[in-house]
Amino acid sequence: MKEVTTTAVSEEVKQWYWKKVQMITIISFIAWLIVAIVLPASAPSFKGVAIGSLPPLHWYIPAFISIVLGIAIIFIYALVMNKLDEELRRRVRI
């Protein structure tokens, strides 16, 4: 089993990390709000869109796009947080 070592982290680094986490979370939340509220509100603009012989899908298209973009936001958030954690490791030199 790998031994866990703890390193004292300065208050300056803790404050830097916390501010970055807050900013990334706020930006992700705003992006999610736009996807979750604006796209469904634009559903009437998709009226008349048909795929093959299916009936008009003006409510399903924005919902599908919202789900896909929501999942993309989750993966982007994870990637950005991983990069931030790498930067933290460099600063703390773990």
UniProtKB/TrEMBL annotation:
InterPro entries: Na_symporter_ssu
Keywords: Membrane, Transmembrane, Transmembrane helix
Key word Transmembrane present: yes
Matching Pfam families: DUF4212
Membrane-spanning parts: 21-39, 59-80
Domain Sodium symporter small subunit: 15-87
Protein's recorded name: Solute:sodium symporter small subunit
Top-level taxonomy: Archaea, Thermoproteota, Thermoprotei, Thermoproteales, Thermoproteaceae
